[in-house]
User: Fold these one by one.
Assistant:
Number 1:
Amino acid sequence: MALDPDNVRVALTGAVYTAAKGTTAPTNATTAFGAGWTDLGWISDDGVEEGYNDDVKEIKAWQGGATVRRVIASSEATLKFTCIESNPDVVELYHKGDTVGSQKIEVHSPTPDERAFAFDVVDGLTHMRIIVPRGEVTERGPIKYKTDEAVAYDLTVTCYPDADDLVLIKYSDDTDWA
């Protein structure tokens, strides 16, 4: 394979969306989101981090203790991002199961809040879209109130598999993906 600098991508901008689980998502990288999808607004300049935590087990042989095989016992996909808008959608996502109303939110112990998520990654005219049909905020960083920083909501979404073991879908309009 030849080296091609035109294939180097930079996530110059993008967006994070959420919707009720089961909401119809676009099936390509550029179609506008339909009813039910909410753009969470400004994301910190750290962008979005996609990660995988694989629990790999080594199979050792009796003869000499050599590793003869490795198997993935479990795997978890996550997407991390930090919202820097204090809008109702972000505040409700952070405070799982609670609702903003009458200019307040009453924060209770968190309840399950499974949703659909989408992440747009844009590099000039090239778009990539990640769709998470089933996900949930499973980690929340502390909120810092400080004079020289935006109030920020650090969130980690864990992707749950569907019946076919699908955890996320990636679309791109990059011609090299054809």
Number 2:
Amino acid sequence: LSDSAWLEGDDAPPAATQAGGQLELLVPLAGLIDVEAERARLGREDEKLGREIARLEGKLANQGFVAKAPAEVVAKERVRLDELSATRTTLAQQLEKLLTL
């Protein structure tokens, strides 16, 4: 497979996905991978992201941390939380597409 394309919007076919920040890598599923295995992988990734998001939310909800940590550290943690939340949203959308196959 040597074809590649940049997709915009929601025009992507059902595909295995790996999200990283604002970039999402899609590998079309048609005859290439086990859909059940991909659903399981996305589920595990979602659980992992959920744990990390909960950890960051707890950290940022801790007034002691927010008050004592340097502003740059707090800002970095907030950016990381936003990135993980966006990635989790992308995974949820991909899982939803897989459930219709």
Number 3:
Amino acid sequence: MNLLDGLTYYKQYSDSDWQFTLKVESAANEMLKLISLYGDQPNSAALAAAYALLVEIEKWKAMCLKERMGNAEQNSQQAVWNAFRDALSAGNDLDAILSIMQLKGFGSSRDEESGQRRAKVATAALRFLKPEEWGVVDWRTAAMLGLLVESKGNVDQALKLAKKHNAKDLREAYDLLDENGACAYNQMYRERRATPSLPRAVDVEMAIFGLSLMAWPMR
């Protein structure tokens, strides 16, 4: 088994989820065109499109669970546009993700104990805006990527190790992934890109997520 098997599994795991992913990808591609066209002077339609995209990205990351949604809509249309525009024009990964993390529900608040901010939802936005360079970072991908590193890239061995771990324990261990962790994991995605099978960072991320579904199925 290899990473490509993980990507195939991800796409087939839930047809409705995959179709929703494609829908949001299409909307994000249109947003790139709008930002390129309007820059610092978006019209009302462009602002509304940016806001709608953010809400859809939150819905996608929350897997349509209503209890995990509702923060994205608290942002102003202008704030969303600025965050998207700044992320796309950022000169480095840290600035890109921090641009998104200014938004409510995407990392603007700090953890009371650690003082750190969670970057997981912000990586979902960058996954759609900059798929060549970014994929989502969450407990599943972080844990599985660590096991792949431990197994020196051997997917079968990584899966064998993964099945020895409890998903709940891993979810708690990787609960707080900040902007620095998000950047580090995405660099690891990029290092595993392989044309033509896994040409983008997001393809690698989805493949790793697919492997995680094999190891720790969703209930």
